[in-house]
Amino acid sequence: MIRNPSWVLRSYPSGMPPVGNWMLEDRPIPEATKGELLAKTLWLSVDPYMRGRISQAKNYAAGFGVGDLMSGGEVGEVITSESPDFKPGDIVVSDYFGWQPFTTIPASSAKLAAATDAPVEASLSFLGMPGLTAYFALLKTGDPKEGETVLISAASGGVGQIAGQIARIKGLDPVAVAGTDAKLEWCKQLGYRECVNHRTSADLVADVAAACPNGVDLFIDNTAGPIHNTAMLNLNTFGRVVVVGTVALADRFDQPDIGLRYLRKTLIARARIEGFLLDDHESEFETAKADLLSWYKQGLFETREDVIEGIEAVPYAFVRMMNGENSANS
């Protein structure tokens, strides 16, 4: 039997997940049935939203049960096809790949990886979920006006690094918040005007105020937690907050989300706070991808991925990303 090492959920984490919450099993290579594809994993992405899927708390994406095979967004090569829409050798993208070398996926979930001047793994970065999230969270939900100051948390990550560059392209004033000087240096290379290190700051509210002397018009919130509180205290009248992610709460997803409340600030500023889910914009994906690819081909933006090789390393990459030890998405 050819080995097909597969990661399954061993237990639910009670805080920030350790690698021990998963177990590696040897499984046979599955066979595709009608309407399915057998595909070989080429690139696999681990992203912060997956923390919610290994929790028993209510979430916007279906969760995993103990003993379930882990799955996520991947690029793979079709080995056998039981669908007239695909043939062996096709390179496809799907959110239903397992954390394993060979997976059967519903053909209905797969899309051909577009032949572009970008590398194929871009389907998981700026032409995939992170890039589309940055595009729509900033330009649609955020509804920015030229010249406005945009504060972005997790600014060097998969979403943040793209959102900051789109802000620059669109004539906005991007300001980064990240957790290491190396990440902030990368943000400066991408065109962020100013950067704040939230881990070393002695007074985050004051440091963000200094970095945003005209206040914050739009906050792209990839983290929640203390950075969210800081943004609220610097928010301008009619400011907007787009809640994209809550990774700062990842060690307590199963607990009530209780903390500081800025209802008076929200009232006085007439602020708008809106949650963001990418699926709400599915009808516009192709338009967004065309814009993103055009900017990439013009050399107007670049991305950096954090790459670890081998299926055995997947949960280690996930934990590393959740702890902020990566440079971008993994």
Describe the protein in words.
The structure is a single chain. The chain has 330 residues and is an alpha/beta fold. Helix content is 25%, strand content 25%. The protein has helices spanning 50-53, 129-141, 160-169, 181-190, 204-211, 225-233, 263-269, 285-297, 314-322, and strands at 4-9, 22-27, 36-44, 71-81, 91-98, 102-106, 111-112, 149-153, 173-178, 194-197, 216-221, 235-243, 272-275. The strands form three sheets. A six-stranded parallel β-sheet has the order 10-9-8-11-12-13, with helices on both faces. Helix 2 (129-141) packs across helix 3 (160-169) and helix 2 (129-141) packs across helix 8. The model has no long low-confidence stretch (mean pLDDT 89).
Task: Describe the secondary structure blueprint for this structure.
Blueprint: E1 4-9, E2 22-27, E3 36-44, H1 50-53, E4 71-81, E5 91-98, E6 102-106, E7 111-112, H2 129-141, E8 149-153, H3 160-169, E9 173-178, H4 181-190, E10 194-197, H5 204-211, E11 216-221, H6 225-233, E12 235-243, H7 263-269, E13 272-275, H8 285-297, H9 314-322
Parallel strand pairs: 8-9, 8-11, 9-10, 11-12, 12-13
Antiparallel strand pairs: 1-2, 3-4, 3-6, 4-5, 5-7
Helix pairs in contact: 2-3, 2-8
Enumerate the spans where pLDDT stays under 50 for 5 or more consecutive residues.
none
Provide the structure class. alpha/beta
| Secondary structure tally: strands | 13
List SSEs in N-to-C order.
Answer: EEEHEEEEHEHEHEHEHEHEHH
Q: Tell me, briefly, the overall form.
A: globular
